[in-house]
Specification:
By secondary structure, the protein is of the alpha/beta class. It has seven helices and ten strands.
């Protein structure tokens, strides 16, 4: 269980500049095995929220807890997938996927076996010896996902991982992610600015306000898993997208 309670965050001001408020009294609970999408306007603080969960930043006030324990830094219970995939350009794909395991001193044979298994799971079994520059953007994101899964985290944190991809590749990776989630039932917190993506992927959607972000609304996604055929034309899918768009369009502009 993830608990974000009364969470505030401010960027420190430089020189005489005042601190910039980013999160304002954010409260979110995420159940084990849930796929939670965090949706909001650009710059509202979605990535900051994810960094707090990852232990890469500390709240100015409030608490971030996992199973009742405060988050004080990164840990093996959480895997992170970034928008820019952040692969090691000098290392081959197998080494990239196994990188976190190497840091944990997992024996070479074991970590390479696990890396190969995950490359197969994400459809890259023939690319172990390739380098990132030899892969398309979508393939690089598959490597990033495999690397995050390699450490066998209970929680997967994803920061707009498909945002820079073309529509066809994005849809394919969404399908892959839903299949992996169904198989492994990891807790996923997925940040996105796409209404379609949030409805397509999430069990629930947290809608954040413009900065400083608060939880404006929480929507249940009334769609079964695996997602049914013809998803885009289902009334529940269409209606929830419409409701989210209405809420987003009615939001005030962010505080300067």
């Amino acid at each position: 269980m993830i608990s974000i309670r009364g969470c505030h965050y401010r960027f420190r001001g430089e020189g005489d500049r005042a601190a910039v408020p980013v999160l304002d009294d954010v409260n979110i609970e995420v159940a084990d095995g849930e796929f939670l999408c965090v949706l909001g306007p650009s710059g509202c603080g979605k990535t900051t929220l994810l960094r707090l969960l990852a232990g890469l930043a500390t709240p100015t006030a409030g608490d971030v807890l996992i199973d009742g324990t405060p988050v004080t830094g990164p840990g093996p219970d959480r895997g992170m997938v970034f928008q820019d995939h952040a692969l090691l350009p000098w290392a081959d794909v197998l080494t990239n996927v196994a990188f976190g395991l190497a840091l944990r001193n997992v024996p070479r044979d074991e970590r390479e076996e696990r890396a190969r298994r995950l490359l197969d799971a994400v459809g890259l079994s023939g690319c172990a010896s390739y380098h990132p520059r030899q892969l398309s953007g979508g393939m690089q994101q598959r490597v990033g996902l495999a690397r995050a899964l390699a450490i066998e985290p209970a929680i997967l944190l994803m920061d707009e991982p498909f945002g820079s991809l073309d529509a066809q590749t994005r849809r394919a990776l969404q399908e892959d992610l839903m299949r992996l989630h169904l198989a492994e039932r990891k807790t996923v917190v997925f940040v996105t600015h796409s209404v379609d993506e949030a409805v397509r992927l999430g069990d629930r959607i947290v809608l954040l306000s413009p900065r400083p972000a608060r939880v404006e609304a929480v929507f249940d996604v009334p769609l079964s898993r695996p997602r049914p055929p013809g998803l885009d034309s289902l009334p529940a899918f269409v209606e929830l997208k419409r409701d989210l768009w209405i809420r987003l369009k009615s939001q005030p502009r962010a505080t300067p």
